[in-house]
Queue: 2 jobs
Job 1
Amino acid sequence: MAAPVLVFAIGNESRGDDALAPLLLRRLQAADQTELIEDYQLQVEHVTDLVGRNAVLFVDADVSCEPPFHFSEIAAAHDNSYTSHAMTPAALLHAYRQVYRENAPPAFLLRIRGYGFELGEPLSDLAVQNLGAALRLADDLCQEVDLNKWRDHADALIPAG
């Protein structure tokens, strides 16, 4: 039986600030009702990880969002990543709908602002600060999983494409 909430960290610790999501996952004070998964990238096989969930939180580093982070609800969307070896969270939600013929569970994306993603770089000082702020939010969300509370913290739903 799957835990009601899945937190999925996407990132590569060998690439500087791309380590933000895996580091957040390891420091997260998640409740028993939460499962934590980490991988370098999303792939179509990850649709099976979404089965039986009440909510999914994807966490990833992002060079384009405002610091310290951006938190939003996301929806299924067919995009160009759908046919490559790596997928966006929205494309994974779309694949779930294609495979299971039903909508994926409610999903949210926590993008933590990163700055340097080169192979072998250490985590930047600014990214460490952003990680602290994102961790406080993620801890709060995972202590009491209430979708209304999650939506209160999130920006408007990013519509399906």
Job 2
Amino acid sequence: MNHDSYDDSYIRGILNTVKTIAMVGASAKDNRPSYFAFKYLGERGYNMIPINPGLAGKELLGRKIYARLSDVPEPIDMVDIFRASSHALPIVQEALTLSPRPRVIWMQLTIRNDEAAALAEANDMKVVMNRCPKIEYGRLSSEIGWIGVNSRTLSSKRAQLYGKGVQRMSLNPFGSAAARGEK
């Protein structure tokens, strides 16, 4: 797979099918990018599991923090790596020991490790490198409630409420009815 560009359908397929995301390197500091991404994805209905050995046993936004992937007592669909590229290979190696195995390894913006990607793909896992799921979700859902990415799509369509009154935008590949000029 070409890891320099990803089809929207590939990214959308991942974001539409994963439910439980373990974020390795989640920070409890509310000014860190990993905190924003963790909170954002959790608000959109994903079951977020924070992984951070220095904070193990504490809580992040009401979720218990685990030291390592292998400590998580439930199946993980996607591992979101918020650590330096040099840490990606050991994280993938640990993910491969889990049963069931996660289906996706996602490395955050600026994080790229071709050896880790090749190992994951050789074990039938999907891989995304150098992308942020928060940004990709917002871009593909045409959500414009955040700054920094221009999706070139505006919609007046009201988002459906998900769970406890939180918006969960549709990742419809054809955009919203309003964007297509429909009522």
